[in-house]
Design goal:
By secondary structure, this protein is of the alpha+beta class. It has a single domain, classed as HIT-like (HIT family, subunit A), CATH 3.30.428. The chain contains two helices and five strands; from the N terminus they run αβββαββ. Strands 1-2-3-5-4 form a five-stranded antiparallel beta sheet, covered by helices on one side. The radius of gyration is 13 Å and the shape is globular. The structure holds guanosine-5'-monophosphate. Guanosine-5'-monophosphate (5GP) binds next to strand 2.
Amino acid sequence: MSEETIFDKIIAKQIPADIVYEDEQILAFKDIAPKAPVHYLIIPKKRIATLNDANPEDQALLGHMMLTASKLATEAGIAEDGYRVQMNVNKGGGQVVFHIHLHMFGGRQLAE
Ligand code: 5GP
């Protein structure tokens, strides 16, 4: 089992977050340091440290995270203009919190 992170505390509502979506499997909330006008993090409630630690049994969970990113982009009014979904993996990929999460951001023109 991987180590607890700040995201476990957000899931347990031990520290506050601006939650935009929740169900039994996942949670989505606003990033505390947004890189765009809309910047949400979509996380599984199940603790998985990195994408490298995901198993075939997590396939539906990962798909659910992706489809929720699209749904939340639509609700935020940025789906048609466009947005970005990104998962950083390990230190070299820019991952800082070791509990997998999708970044969904948009609301401005994204470079590259
Ligand atoms: P990573 O670099 O691991 O892909 O992204 C971690 C993200 O989590 C960063 O964008 C950072 O701003 C966000 N973050 C870290 N701690 C907190 C927190 O306590 N609350 C919220 N809402 N976001 C956080």
